[in-house]
Design a protein that fits this description.
- By secondary structure, the chain is mainly β.
- It contains two helices and four strands, in the order H-E-E-E-H-E.
- The protein has a domain of 69 residues.
- Helix content is 8%, strand content 21%.
- It has a four-stranded antiparallel β-sheet, with no helix packed on it.
Length: 103
């Protein structure tokens, strides 16, 4: 049986005044959530649904391999065991790797 790990839910809510507090209750439908699980590896974490990989978060940093590891990003898996549909490091425009947090 798949293990569902705790996660974080974030969103932007317009119109909230400074220091105003709002509270919400998040109810997760356990049968729907039961198929989701995380798998950790050396510098990466996969999200899977019923054994089908969805995305891989690449976060490892290795100073000896800076070009390939200096920027965390998300690889997206294709359907039907297609592997990654995102590019990853290297090649033309090496800083364009997948879905990433820019700052």
């Amino acid at each position: 049986m798949a293990q569902v790990n705790a996660g974080t839910v974030r969103w932007i809510e317009p119109g909230v005044k400074a220091h105003e507090r709002k509270e919400y209750e998040l109810i997760v439908d356990k049968p729907a959530a039961a198929g989701f699980a995380f798998r950790d590896g050396d510098g990466w974490r996969d999200l899977v649904f019923n054994e089908q990989p969805i995305y891989r978060y690449m976060y490892k940093y290795d100073p000896a391999n800076r070009e390939n590891t200096y920027k965390p990003f998300h690889h997206i898996f294709g359907f039907h065991d297609d592997g990654f549909i995102t590019k990853g490091p290297g090649g033309m425009e090496s800083h364009h790797r997948g879905i990433f947090f820019g700052f």
